[in-house]
Amino acid sequence: MKKTILFAFIMMASMSTLFAQGVAGGRSRGDSGYDPMAKPNIVKLNLSSLAYRNIALQYERVLGNKISVACGVRFMPNGSVPFTNTLDDIVTSGGDSSDFSAWKASSLAITPEFRFYPKHAGKGFYLAPYFRYRSVSLDLPVDYTDDFNKAQKINATGNFNSYIGGIMIGSQFNLGPMVTLDWFIVGFQYGVTSGKLDIKTTQTLSANDQSELRADLQDFKNSANTFNNIDYTVNANGGSISGNFSALGFRAFGLNLGFKF
Q1: What global pTM score does this model have?
Q2: What is the three-class DSSP state of 182?
Q3: Can you give the pLDDT at residue 127?
Q4: CA 186, CA 126: separation in Å to the nearest integer?
Q5: Are 107 and 75 contacting, i.e. CB atoms less than 8 angstroms apart?
Q6: What is the DSSP string of 43-98?
Q7: Neighbours of 126 (CB within 10 A)
Q8: Residues with Cβ < 8 Å from 214, sequence gap 6 or more?
Q9: 250: domain range?
Q10: Below-70 pLDDT ranges, the chain
Q11: CATH of residue 180
Q12: In angstroms, rounded to a whole number, what is the distance separating the alpha carbons of residues 62 and 195?
């Protein structure tokens, strides 16, 4: 992860150096009188991500009349996983007893990007190709009551890393001489994710239980094309599941309040 962060900052610094002479000698105010280089630095807070316990900051640097580079960092502190109450309701309605509310997750994402503005850098419509590195940590304990009315517990812990490339369509508005509103309209992306879950049980699994669990995992692997590149181990105390998968995705409707200087 340190290498990824270092690469992002080196890329931004190199591009800034490359364009420095051209920017200094050829900036233009355009027909509107707007000067992209008057305040070329913008620091932003993603307001919409706060609803999902994500703290997302972005730094954008204008390099010329129509181009800029940016780097975003998004962090989600360790906390509860959404929709666990719904899972509890589903399991309870089926006659079983469990508690998914103790599930915890945390994540970190780093997103360097290049921006092209058809009119003026830092203002108006833009296209932004980007790369994203994301790391997600999971702690998924499950307390349940088995068929013999005995309390049991399963605990799964793991980490997943994703490498994603995509393009964002957005628009940035100047709300004043020092304030901007950056709207992430929609983005399309493709990424590869790899990771591993280690599973431990309080109940020792019999040879028959282990055999049934292996059969279930193999059936899942055979039936789910997206997750067929997985490996698993099963033992008397649980086991592990590891693998990787790729998927298409999208980003949409992010509102970022910015400060220009």
Answers
A1: 0.78
A2: strand
A3: 98
A4: 11
A5: yes
A6: EEEESGGGGGT-EEEEEEEE-SSSEEEEEEEEEEEEEEPTTHHHHHHHHHHTT-EE
A7: 24
A8: 232, 234
A9: 2-260
A10: 1-32, 82-100, 146-147, 224-228
A11: 2.40.160
A12: 37
Give the residue among 136, 128, 124 at the shortest CA–CA distance from 112. 128
Looking at residue 1, its pLDDT comes to 41
Burial of 130 (0-12, 13-18, 19+ CB in 10 A): buried
What confidence score (pLDDT) does residue 191 get? 95
Report the amino acid identity of residue 204.
T
Q: Please check whether residue 175 is in contact with residue 197, taking contact to mean a CB–CB distance below 8 angstroms.
A: no
Q: Are 44 and 58 in contact (CB under 8 A)?
A: yes
The one-character DSSP state at 120 is: B
Give the tens place of pLDDT for each residue, 238-250: 889 898 888 899 8
From CA 88, how far away is CA 91, in angstroms rounded? 5
Domain count for the chain: 1
